[in-house]
Every structure is written in structure tokens, then in C-alpha cells.
Amino acid sequence: MNDETTGRSFMDRMLGRKAPDAGPGEQHVPDAEPAETGKPRSWFQRLKSGLARSSSALGENLTALIRKRKLDDATLQDLEDVLIQADLGVETAVRITERLASERYDKEIDDAELRAVLAAEIAAVLKPVARPLEIDPGNKPHVILVVGVNGAGKTTTIGKLASKFCADGKSVVLGAGDTFRAAAIEQLKIWGERTGSPVIARDQGADAAGLAFDAMREARDSGADVVMIDTAGRLQNKSELMAELEKIVRVIRKQDETAPHDVLLVLDATTGQNAMQQAEIFSARCGVSGIVMTKLDGTARGGILVAIAARHKLPVHAIGVGEGIEDLQSFDADEFASAIVGGAVD
């Protein structure tokens, strides 16, 4: 059973703690719409709804493929193609078809049985990477650098995480390191006001590495628990911008050689296979430690998270299926696997 139904909040799930009262940021940000019954939807209901496009596209193809057919070589090959087309990745597609071949070859299989196998195998791929984002109290502050391409949702993700950290009683400093966009600076200032967190910002066009240095110093001097540093969106194929990101990391390490303690890569699920390349390049250039995937509710390509997990083995900390704070939640492999195949959760 998912923890949302028992009243546990995002940070409870992330940190394994009892749910505290809502933080100051939560009252300002719209949450998911309530269901027709008037009761708030559980996280799994929101997740399943958010993944509806992905599960519907996959389900229609599976139903058409399996109807009145035995699992012979041709059917298994067609199934592998369907799974790859659903962005689940070659590794996962082969894993699933090999299991079916070993257990059900030349036998009929119905839609429910097939979905159960898919969910089990997808969950098996995802469980090793479903890891909580843990704030180490030994780091003062715990430094989180947030990276990704333009439009992935970095600044919004920072704001939502900051709200959750504050609700958990932690003090947070925000660094407006996306100095290329005035809108990103203003957006982070709004989140700072909502959460009561100081925002270190400079004029548009200011040196991003210097801004990161200032944010680190402010967090250390004020005794903050966490400092989250935004960065400009940069295409992974622009070497000069990636070099600037590397400079930011070097500057951070001048104040704390163990930092950044987390480098979160925010990926937009709607970019599909391009997200796979982003994971590879950003990991190589700035040592990505974990992923947050956003906008799963806006695409039929949610399977790309499975492909990235199978290929890169990067921890997946959280996923987003909407605009509200509670639509960004810690990642649960079983819930995701069940939702993407259109199933229920036990």
C-alpha cells in the first residue's frame, strides 16, 4: 500500500519520518484536484492518472498483440518491438521476453497475466535505483546542485523540494544560479518567500560560479541545513556551457571539498530518448548522483525512466505528475511499475 493513503507526506517517504505539519510554502501552491467524492486523491491515484497516456499507449498495443495468440517466436519478437517502442529500452524488453519465453513459450497468455509479468519485471529493474534523497546532518550545509536542460523543471523542482525540507523543520538557502534568465531568478525568489528561505541572487548575466560561492558562504555562515543551487539550463551538446557547469562544481569544492553532496539531474519525461543522452552526458561532466523526472503526466513516453534505470543505474529520487507540491513524490518502484501497465496496487 502506498504511504500517501496513510497520511505520510513526501518528506516522510524520503526520510522515513512521521509526517509533520505543513510548511509555509504548501498553503500557497495548488495541489491536485480532489476526486468527485470530495476526498483528495491518493498519490497512487495521481500517479496512475499521470501515467495514463503511457499506460494507455502500451496497453492498446499489448491487447492487440496478445489476443488469441500463443507465445511463439513471432509473437515474442513483436512483443519485444512493442516494449521498445514504448521507450522501455532494449535491456528491459529483452529481459521481459526472455522470462516469458522460459515460462510461457507456445502457451496462450491473457492480458492480465501479461501485465502482471510486465509489472514484476519493470519493478525488478527499478527497485535497485529507487532510493530516498537523504540529507546528511553531518554536512553543514548539505549542498544540492540541480542541473538539466532548459524547460526540464529545475527551478520548480527546487521550490517544491525546499517547501518539503522546510516542512520537515530544516533551514534552507536557495541559490539563483540560473543567471541567464531573469524569470528563473524571480521564480526562485517567489519560492523563497513561500518557504521563508533566503535566496542568494545577482543581476541577470552575473557569474554563476560566483553566485554558487556566495550561496555556499551564506548557508555556512547562517548554519543552514541545506543549500540548493539552481543552474542555467544547458544543452548537453554545448561544450562551453558544460565547461561552465564544471567550473561551478570546482568553486563549490573550494569551500567544501566533499560538496556538492548531491547533483540532481532533472529530466523532462516528454523528451523521451533525448533524456537518455542527457543522463549520459551530465553524468560524465558533473557527476550526477540522482534523478528527478518531471512531466510524466504530459507524455506517452513515461517508459523512458525504465530505460534510463536499466542503462545508467542512477538513483531515482522523485517523480512529478503535475503542478502541485504533492504531485512531486519520492519514487516507488512497485507503484510506478503497476501504474505504467495500468494495474492496481496492493
Q: Overview of this structure, please?
A:
Helix 4 (73-85) packs antiparallel against helix 5 (90-104) and helix 9 packs parallel to helix 10. The protein has an eight-stranded mixed sheet with strand order 3-2-4-1-5-6-7-8, sandwiched between helices. The protein has helices at 10-15, 43-50, 52-66, 73-85, 90-104, 111-126, 154-167, 182-195, 208-222, 239-255, 273-286, 304-312, 333-340; strands at 142-147, 172-175, 199-200, 226-229, 262-268, 290-294, 316-320, 328-330. The longest helix has 17 residues, at 239-255. The radius of gyration is 21 Å and the shape is elongated. It starts with 9 loop residues before the first helix and ends in a 6-residue tail after the last helix. With 346 residues, it is an alpha/beta fold.
What is the secondary structure topology, with strand pairs?
Blueprint (H helix, E strand, L loop, with lengths): L9 H6 L27 H8 L1 H15 L6 H13 L4 H15 L6 H16 L15 E6 L6 H14 L4 E4 L6 H14 L3 E2 L7 H15 L3 E4 L9 H17 L6 E7 L4 H14 L3 E5 L9 H9 L3 E5 L7 E3 L2 H8 L6
Parallel strand pairs: 1-4, 1-5, 2-3, 2-4, 5-6, 6-7
Antiparallel strand pairs: 7-8
Total strands: 8
Question: What spatial form do the alpha-carbon principal axes imply?
Answer: elongated
Spans where pLDDT lies below 50 across 5 or more residues: 1-37
Q: What is the average per-residue confidence, as pLDDT, rounded to a whole number? A: 86
User: What count of helical segments does DSSP give?
Assistant: 13
- What is the N-to-C succession of helices and strands? HHHHHHEHEHEHEHEHEHEEH
Class by alpha and beta content: alpha/beta
- Can you list the strand order of the major beta sheet? 3-2-4-1-5-6-7-8
From the N-terminal CA to the C-terminal CA, the straight-line distance is: 6 Å
Helix % is 40-55%
User: Could you give a short account of the major beta sheet?
Assistant: 8 strands, mixed
Task: Kindly provide the radius of gyration, computed on alpha-carbon positions and rounded to a whole number of angstroms.
Answer: 21 Å
Task: Please report which band the strand proportion falls in: under 5%, 5-15%, 15-25%, 25-35%, 35-45% or over 45%.
Answer: 5-15%
